[in-house]
Amino acid sequence: MIVFKKKEELAHYLLSQKNRSIGFVPTMGSLHQGHISLILQSQKKCSITVCSIFINPTQFNNIDDLKKYPKNIALDLKLLENARCDIVYTPSSDDLYNKNEQAQNYEFNGLENCLEGKYRPGHFNGVATIVEKLLRLVKPNYAFFGEKDLQQLVIIKSLVKSIGMNIVITGCPTTRDENGLALSSRNILLSKEDLLYSSIIYKQLLLFKKNYLNTSIIELKNSIIKNLTKSKKIKIDYFEFIEIATLQPKLAINKETKYAACIAVKISGVRLIDNIIL
Ligand code: PAF
Asked: How far is the CA of 134 from the centre of ligand 1 (A)?
């Protein structure tokens, strides 16, 4: 495994590998088996896998959230080495951003303003800014993103289309712990008790999936919100039944359309998101 810290060195190396298909897994580190599953998907499709580790400051609209974001670069490198990742790019901020550089302003036809966008203004401008920089640098054939961040995945597909890059954006299924909690770098901020309690999120998503075809969506949503808010520990930002292509909430079902139920909650102040694709 080769580790690069400078974009020029990475670009120079990748130029020498031009005849190989490149798979790319961008991350913010604090890696877990969910990230490793993306690396494995990339290895199945591509002959060389590049993983980036960079906590992107422009996608945090809250400075405390950025400060608290977990870091463990030594463990990350060990996990990537064990997974036989070929290349890791771990830049510092000044390798990717000029001094005082802000996120660019993108237009994603409203995809960026709903769900997470409502609670994290500017978040997707930051995500798109860094993802565009990284894609232009790595020039992968395929890039892999978790379906856990479904809105991010939909927006990145739209970004790649709008900048006209020939990259296949591949969504990969969410990896869960033994109780169903979606793996997330933020899970280590939860106490043991809250970690167990958080499995209620996926249980309620499964309940939605089981019943949404034969119950009123509004009644089902309300009963799930009621189930979730029985405990004072949990604060719901949103629970929405959405059409995946537009991310817009829906109340009725059309057979040809793909839907998901998406949720964001805070458990003892730790913000968790999840979804179920229906
Ligand atoms: O999903 C993430 O970890 C980040 O949003 C990403 C795509 C690496 C951009 O910083």
From this structure: 11
